[in-house]
Amino acid sequence: MRPVRIALLIAALGAAQAQAGVFDDDEARRQIADHRIKTEARFDQQAKAQLDLANQIQQQAEEIARLRGQIETLTYELETAKKRQQDFYLDLDTRLRKFEAPAASAADGADPAATAAQAKPAGDPAREAQEYEAALNQFKAGKYKDAATGFAAFVQKHPDSQLAPNAQYWLGNAWYAQRDCKRAIEAQSVVTTKYADSPKAPDAWLAMATCQQEMGSAGAAKRSLETLVAKYPNVPAAETARERLKKK
Fold first, then answer.
1. Domain 125-247, CATH class in plain words
2. Is the pTM of this model over 0.85?
C-alpha cells in the first residue's frame, strides 16, 4: 500500500506543476499582449501629436506667407503714393518757376533797361540752378536729410536768388518728410515773412498749418489757414485752406 501512495503523491505533484506551468504561460502571454496594446497606443498618440504639429506648422507657414504678401502690398502702395506726391510737388514747382521771374520782369510800364538791371542776379544763375536742382533731386530720390542740407546751404549762400524762396520752401518740406515739424515750421515761416511776395508763400502757410495740426496746435493751425485766405484769397492753396476751415 505504501508504494502505491507514494506513486499517487508523485503523480499529483507532477499534475500541479504542469498546471502551474500552463498558468505561467497564460500570464506571460497576457502581459505581452497588454504591453503590445500599450505600446501601440503610445505610438498612435505620438503619431497624432506629430500630425497635429505638422498641421500647426503648415498653418503658421500659410499665415506668414499671407502677412508677407500684405506687407509687400502695403510697401508697394506706400512707395507709389510717395512717388506720386513727389512727382506732384516737382511738377508744381516746375510750373510755378516759369511764372515767377518772367512775370516780374514783364510788368506793365516798367523800363526794360531798369527792369533788366534789377532782375539781374548777383551770382551765377546757371550755377545756382545746378545747386538747386541737385538738392531737389535728392528730395525726389527720398534722401530727405541730404535734401535739407542742400537747400539750407543754398539759401545761406544765395539768399537773394530768384530760387531762394523755392529752396526755403523745399527745405521746410524736407524737414516735414523727416517728421520734424518744428524745423519744418521754422523753415516755412521764413518763406511767409522774408519771401511773403513769393508764389511759395501761400503754400508755406498751408504747410505750416499741416505741421501745427499734427503737433496738436489746432488753434495755431486755424490761424495760419485764416491768414492764408486773407492774404492770398485767389490762389489754389487758399481754396484748400477754406475746405480745411469748414471741417474745423
1. mainly alpha
2. no
Q: In tens digits, what is the pLDDT along the chain, a chain of 248 residues?
A: 556 556 555 655 555 555 555 556 677 777 777 777 777 677 667 766 777 777 677 667 666 756 655 564 455 455 545 545 555 556 556 655 555 555 444 434 444 444 444 444 456 888 999 999 999 999 999 999 999 999 999 999 999 999 999 999 999 999 999 999 999 999 999 999 999 999 999 999 999 999 999 999 999 999 999 999 999 999 999 999 999 999 86
CA atoms within 13 A on the CB side of 169: 25
Give the number of other CB atoms < 10 A from CB of residue 89. Answer: 17
Residue type at position 230: A
User: CA–CA separation, 62 vs 50, rounded Å?
Assistant: 18
Domain ranges of the chain: 49-103, 125-247
Take residue 185 and report the three cell numbers written for it: 515750421
3-state secondary structure the chain: CHHHHHHHHHHHHHHHHHHHHHHHHHHHHHHHHHHHHHHHHHHHHHHHHHHHHHHHHHHHHHHHHHHHHHHHHHHHHHHHHHHHHHHHHHHHHHHHHHHHHHHHHCCCCCCHHHHHHHHCCCCCHHHHHHHHHHHHHHHHCCCHHHHHHHHHHHHHHCCCCCCHHHHHHHHHHHHHHCCCHHHHHHHHHHHHHCCCCCCHHHHHHHHHHHHHHHCCCHHHHHHHHHHHHHHCCCCHHHHHHHHHHHHC
Spatial separation of the C-alpha atoms in residues 171 and 145, rounded to whole Å: 10
